Amino acid sequence: MKKFILLFSLLAFSNFTFSQQTYTVGNETLELKTETEGALDLLWNTINEQYRYFIKTEDGKIIELKNTKGTNNKYQEEYRPTLTKLTSMDVSKVNLTTYSLKSFIDKYNSSKDSNYVASKPRSKVKLRLGVFGGVTNNPFNKNTKNQKAALFGTELEVASDNADSAHSGFLNVRHTTDSDEFQYSATQIALGYRYRFINKANFNIYAQTKFATFTSSKITYTIVDPNDASALITVEDNATGFDAPFIFGLGADIKLGNGYLTLVYDSIFAAALDAQGNFSIDFAIGYKFNL
Question: N or C: which end of the chain has fewer CB within 10 A?
């Protein structure tokens, strides 16, 4: 058993050292991973919480693909003329992401060597943990005076590590508070899906739907005492329920530090819930941490 563990450890270590090597680039000594090997090698790693990409040529020269900000605070996309010089190929649709660069380098290497075999891109999952707070008028509940209430919650978002992917899923937990004017409170757990129809490196805008919810709610109201018409009694009604409401909303993420500032206009309408006559007000602002 000990021999097996030792052999396994050696194999794992040898695989690690093969896939990640030390390179000297300018004045830096960097540990870089090899994504593709061919006429051009694609090297990369996450350094100081930033993705950095490099091209290694057949003569061993290592060139960094850069995308720095200019004085106008716009990205300069220096990596595109660098790739054009190396390949003489159209780079207009190449993004500075692992998936996009790998696809481009695979295409170039295939054009230089008919026996080149492109490896399948590694699909990884990334997680984001968010917290948020906002205001709502509980648009799918009877709220005759259109009273507003505070909401707060947390969320776990699951997406592909491929930065080009526009799809993600999320598990959302939120609590809506009551008020003196509208004594309704609820805690909701929801499963949902997002599609980013604008998906940039520093911001994205998406549509989302909550397709499954579990809600625990409490409403307090007064009625006339059936035994005394001049008196009122307070009734507290508790309920739980599972629904497939398909609640639709819009949101945006803005890159900030090691995560995103997030803005959401939730509960615009629902396919399986009745609106109660009030224009939907359901806004939240929060922050998502990259895990």
Answer: N
**pLDDT value at 234 more than 80:** no
Query: How far is 135 from 176, CA to CA, in rounded Å?
Result: 9
CA distance 210 to 216: 16
Q: Is residue 6 part of a domain?
A: no
Range of the domain at 200: 125-290
Last residue of a domain, one of 52, 87, 112: 112
For residues 39 and 32, give the distance between their C-alpha atoms in angstroms, rounded to a whole number: 18
Count up the domains in the chain and report the number: 2
Whether residues 56 and 103 share a domain: the answer is yes
* Residue ranges with strand state E in the chain: 20-25, 28-36, 41-47, 50-56, 62-65, 125-136, 149-160, 167-176, 184-199, 203-225, 228-243, 247-255, 259-270, 282-290
Per-residue pLDDT at 247 exceeds 90: yes
Tell me the range of 20-29, 55-64, 215-224 where mean pLDDT is highest.
Answer: 55-64
Backbone angles phi, psi at 91, to 5 degrees: -115, 10
Per the structure block, which two tokens stand in for 141? 């509940």
- The domain that holds 142 is classified in CATH as 2.40.160.20
